[in-house]
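Sanity check record (used in CI):
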Amino acid sequence: MMKRFTLLLSLLIGLGFFPNSAFAQEKSPSQKFWENLKAHCGKAYEGKLVSPESDPRFAGKLVMHVRACEEGRIRIPFFVGDDRSRTWVLTRDEAGLIQLKHDHRHEDGSEDQVTQYGGKASNTGSASTQFFPADQFTANLLPAAVGNVWWITVDETSFTYNLRRLGSPTLFTVKFDLTQPVEAPAAPWGWAD
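Expected output for Secreted protein:
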């Protein structure tokens, strides 16, 4: 009898019959991270290069725009001055693990030769931080990037995108101020409004 009750209770919890009770399952850290990020949908923010302190490839105004939030996918264009070639694409799988890909486009909208690299979180991370070690596609496309680990942090005041190449001093960090939204920029290259 107790076994049947436990089975029935598990089924009811799984179907969401107790959404506000102690029986409800706690959200995973990756789900909380996803929701924290989705809260910024439609908003754009200015950022600054933290590491290295300067890099001519990232001269100009740095803006991220949480432009598209779809079921299981969030796309965040990253603008460097007038360069609208970069978009961070985050997707969630059935297990709730998050993948980061870098979509690079030319001004005519065609894909760059080096695009779609990134990695998938190997665990649920935390509500504020997700790590993405380079995947096999990235290792095949860019052998030097096999040791890349990207991570994103989102808290009440900032969004930080980071890249560390393991075994080297390479660290790239750009931090965006989430307390001061800015005007949303035009569509990135390859997108239609």
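The chain has one domain: 27-182. If this sentence no longer matches the regenerated tokens, the check is flagged for review.
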